Amino acid sequence: MSIVKINALTVPAEQREVLERRFASRAGSVEGSDGFEWFELLRPVEGTDQYLVYTRWRSEEDFQAWMEGPMKAAHQGGAGAGAGGERPKPAATDSTVWSFEVVQQAAPKQA
Asked: What's the pLDDT at 12?
């Protein structure tokens, strides 16, 4: 079964719009990766300042290949760099990655 990676990003209120805009501008960058299955950016509604970045992958190996290839390249100055090649200040003040194996899943019943 698949694996899930959830990146919990602590985002101050004044940076929420910046974070969402950056994710919107990168739309499509992970979708073509081998083994990629799903992505969701979850905005907190109440009680926390943490956004959750949910991705599901066919295997840990597929996730690691993306981390070492396209993701690493995107975060090392290419995409998102400003004038003079400088990277913009991160919108999040903290980040923690959680890893899970999918052991059960369900979809809506077909009518």
From this structure: 95
